[in-house]
Each structure stands twice: as C-alpha cells, then as structure tokens.
Amino acid sequence: MLLGILGSGSGSNMQAILDAIDAGTLDARIALVLSDNPQAFILERARRRGIDTGIIDCRGFRTKFPEEAQQETAERLLAAGVDLVCLAGFLRLVKRPLLDAFPQRILNIHPALLPAFPGLEAWKQALDAGVPETGATVHFVDEGMDTGPVILQQRVPVLPGDTAESLHARIQIAEHRLYPEAIARVAAGPAHGGA
Ligand code: GAR
Q1: In a 3-state reduction of DSSP, which class is residue 123?
Q2: Of all residues in the chain, what percent carry a pLDDT higher than 70?
Q3: I want to staple 194 with a disulfide (CB 3.0 to 4.6 A). Which of 72, 150, 168, 186 is the partner?
Q4: Options 3.30.565.10, 1.10.340.30, 3.40.190.10, 3.40.50.170; which CATH number does 2-115+137-154+179-192 get?
Q5: Which of 56, 107, 55, 110 is nearest to 84 (CA)?
Q6: Region 170-185 average pLDDT
Q7: Pocket around ligand 1 at a 6 A CB cut-off
Q8: Under DSSP, is residue 87 helix (H, G, I), strand (E, B) or coil?
Q9: How far apart are CA 183 and CA 195, in angstroms?
Q10: Cα 172 to chain center, whole Å?
Q11: If you measure from the C-alpha of residue 89 to the centroid of ligand 1, how many angstroms do you get, rounded to a whole number?
Q12: Containing H/E element for 77?
C-alpha cells in the first residue's frame, strides 16, 4: 500500500504512521508528502527519512484550495503510484478534481468525535462548549467539511483545568494510535471495515 500524505503543520500524525510502519504493525510505504506550507515541519520530517516531498502552490489564496492546485496535486499523487491519500493536519478543503482522482481513497484525521465540532481547532470548540468528553475521528473524505463516513473513533476525556493546549495534546495521543490502525483497516478491505 503506497501512501501519499498531505499536511500543513508539524506532521506528528505522519510520524505516527511512519512509526507503525517501522514497528511492522502497518504494511505500507509513504511515497510522497505534499504541503501547502513550505515552512511546515512535516516536510522536514519527510526529508530526513528520504521521502519525496513537494509544495502545493495555492496561488496566494490563504485558505482556498484552488481547482488548478487540486488537479496538480492529483497528478503528482497518481504519478507517484499512490493508492491511498492521508490528510494529516491538512487545513484546506479537498474537493473535485482531487476527490475524483481517488474515489473512496482519501482519509482524514479530525480532532473531535464527528459529527461534533467539524472545522478548525475542534479541541477549542469542545472546550468552549463545556462537553465532558471529545475525541478523535478517522473518516473518508467527501465533498463536505469533515462529513464523510467514519472509519474509527476514540473518546478522550476533557479534564478539569484543561487548556486548549493540554486538551489538544491528549487528543493527539489518541490520534497517533488511531490513524495507523484506520489505514490498516482500509488496506485490509471492506470485510474489516475498510473500503
Ligand atoms: C491534528 O490534531 C489533526 O487532527 C488536526 O491538525 C492537527 C495536525 O497535527 N487536523 C484538523 O484540525 C483538520 N480539520 P500534526 O501536523 O502534528 O499531525
């Protein structure tokens, strides 16, 4: 299973995927890592491992993922032979034509128990809402924002005195266990809850 990773930030989830591959619990290889942010540490992590990297040129748009950029991204992922695309802290909304190039083959990790708290900084949303627990979700990406079919979820408690940072850190521990397991399920096929 050849993976393509799209990320905008630190890349700790990509690191967790690499760790699972190293540990032999995930039978996969990361072929290509692309980022819309040239400064993102996810690119540095990938380079250190000798993984091919690239920048997604979003034509100066701050949050939009323009159609030409989606087309270019799809072409690069296909040229690298990628089977499954994993969004790992990628902060732009994926739409056609990228979705069409990888039908039911794009996963996302989200720091909440979807459908609760879609969108950005979901851990802050949970804290502001005063809920006793939140969590992490891995799901297939569809045309909506964090709306595709759920593959796996894990609950995470909100503790007294939590700050946005402490809660996000606890959610990330759950994410790092959840994402490799969800990828393994998808790789194993529909009988195991995958595509
Ligand atoms: C993760 O917590 C991920 O769930 C979140 O960004 C963080 C990236 O961390 N994604 C979203 O909020 C997407 N809506 P990482 O770069 O260390 O993997």
Answers
A1: helix
A2: 97
A3: 186
A4: 3.40.50.170
A5: 107
A6: 98
A7: 7, 9-13, 42, 88-89, 109-111, 120, 122, 172, 175
A8: strand
A9: 10
A10: 12
A11: 3
A12: helix 67-79
Query: Cβ-count burial of 103 within 10 angstroms (0-12 exposed, 13-18 middle, 19+ buried)?
Result: exposed
109, 138 Cβ separation under 8 angstroms: yes
Q: Is 147 helix (H, G, I), strand (E, B) or coil?
A: coil
Can you read off the two tokens belonging to residue 151?
């593959």
Whether pTM exceeds 0.90: yes
Can you give the residue ranges of every domain in the chain? Answer: 2-115+137-154+179-192
Task: Report the percent of the chain where pLDDT is more than 90.
Answer: 96
- The closest alpha carbon to 73, from 88, 92, 55, 90, belongs to 55
Sheet with 2-6, side-by-side order of all strands: 52-55, 29-35, 2-6, 84-87, 106-110, 133-140, 150-157
pLDDT digits (tens, 9 = 90+) for 105-130: 999 999 999 999 999 999 999 999 99
Residue spans of beta strands (DSSP E) within 16-149: 29-35, 52-55, 84-87, 106-110, 133-140
Nearest alpha carbon, ligand 1 atom 9:
89
SS3 of 194, please?
coil
**110 catalytic residue (yes or no):** yes
